[in-house]
User: Fold this.
Amino acid sequence: MLGDVAADPEAEGWRGLPAHSLRTALDGATPGQGTTVKSAWDGEEWRVFFEIDDTHVWATLTDRGGPLYQEEVVEVFVDPVGDLEAYFEIEMNPLNAVMEVVLRRNRSGYAKDFAWRCEGLRTAVRRTECGWCAELAIPFRSLVAEPPKAGARWRANFCRIDRPPGVERELTAWSSPGRANFHTPERFGWVEFLA
Assistant:
């Protein structure tokens, strides 16, 4: 289907798939620097591809599990059950560092479990003339007991933190949360696994 995880926008498997633009988190406006996301799946994994316009690509963190959200990053949020009781978050920066967390609802909001690892996760980044690309291959077995069947719908969101020099950070999302915080699962969109 999609072949190796290479973050290559010209890869045959990504050509022809619809690209969805991220909008500003607060009001859904057009961002200063654009980002598009595509996704695809097979019986084993869910693939997500980001193409990121960025005039100043930067990151310093390289350790898995580091606080990537303090720098420039793209993020995948997913609630396979869709009941808002728990969801997964996977972040990736331009250096191909990864941070994973699972959040579970409790009395005061959501508790974060940074010990969770997305077992079998494969990632790649690539610099481009206009910025960078990021690709994730997320094994279904790391999220759920059984892979989704055609027609299944999962709550999800795709987000970006852009930190250009000298200006305020810009938060963008596929499904705008309406505030400067991506942890708004009730505002996640729906991803449908088409046959």
